[in-house]
Design brief:
10 strands; Jelly Rolls; 44% helix; Arc Repressor Mutant, subunit A; two-stranded antiparallel sheet
């Protein structure tokens, strides 16, 4: 009986993922994380989340930021982050992942601002009005009875409020001195050879930097160590293959993972859902839910 009681109180990870019909492939999420800790990773587009319960501890820009119910988390494209729940209570939140193009269109609604990709200098926001509008859209995205016009209207209004109150114009290019070209070379090398086993000395050789110095400036610029960046590239490649209907085992091998278990572990700790759950989300229509998924 004691064992059963302990198991009943163990934290669990549950989430449901949707691809919202009519919104350009926009993915949304409802998550309840009791134990999942994300490894450092980044998204190609934006991450926007509203905490509904518990306390989350996302780690980005060199420190941990606690987000509580009603707080909004906004991360820019390619902004490395990690973390998970920081209390015994699960971290519950809803999230959406708009693309760069979608956010550029929203930025165009503010002609007085510098145009282009918006930048959010503060990732953790306490703004009740923005949170309310974001949550209204996310609830509509889950509701199969909502209309496309309703979902579009709620999404546009929520993003406009977020951008209007918290975004700045495009950030200036990072001044990295002579290392900037070397980092770009290293990233391109890892992306072109994602499935290959690459040593740090090999990577350093193509950049002209020492292995130690390459690791230091790569992490400074990208926010990830070279090996973590390679894993992220592999996961993104696997996602593309899964979206094309490639079987999971084959996608794992082609992306560079040595076995399916290794692939599933990294996929879940980066994307937040297992490969099988991601496949079901891609094959669903409208706001169909994926049960027992984790993101």
């Amino acid at each position: 009986m004691v064992g059963m009681s302990q198991r009943a109180h163990e934290p669990v990870d549950e989430a449901r993922l949707w691809r919202v019909e009519g919104l350009g492939g926009l993915e949304v999420l409802r998550a309840n994380y009791g134990r999942l800790i994300f490894t450092p990773h980044a998204h190609e587009g934006f991450l926007i989340a509203v905490t509904e319960g518990g306390v989350g501890g996302p780690v980005f820009r060199g420190e941990r930021h606690e987000v509580e119910p009603g707080d909004v988390l906004v991360l820019n494209p390619e902004e490395a982050h990690a973390g998970g729940p920081v209390t015994e209570a699960p971290w519950r939140y809803r999230a959406l992942y708009p693309s760069r193009d979608q956010m550029v269109q929203i930025m165009a609604e503010f002609p007085q601002r510098k145009q282009g990709l918006p930048e959010f200098p503060h990732g953790a926001l306490r703004d009740f009005e923005v949170a309310k509008r974001l949550r209204r859209f996310l609830l509509a995205a889950e509701d199969e009875g909502s209309t496309l016009l309703q979902r579009e209207s709620y999404l546009t209004e929520a993003l406009a409020w977020l951008v209007g109150r918290h975004a700045t114009g495009r950030r200036p290019a990072n001044a990295l001195g002579r290392e900037r070209k070397s980092i770009a070379t290293a990233r391109g090398y890892l992306e072109a050879r994602a499935a290959e086993s690459i040593s740090l000395h090999e990577l350093a050789g193509v950049t002209g930097l020492s292995p130690y110095y390459l690791c230091r400036v790569f992490r400074r610029d990208v926010g990830l160590a070279p090996h973590a960046y390679q894993t992220q590239v592999r996961v993104r490649r696997a996602k593309e293959l899964l979206g094309q209907g490639i079987p999971i085992a084959l996608a794992a091998a082609e992306a560079g993972f040595y076995d399916q278990a290794h692939f599933s572990r990294h996929f879940k700790r980066t994307v937040g859902v297992t490969p099988g759950e991601y496949v079901r989300a891609q094959s669903g229509s409208g706001s169909r839910e994926v049960p027992e998924a984790v993101r």
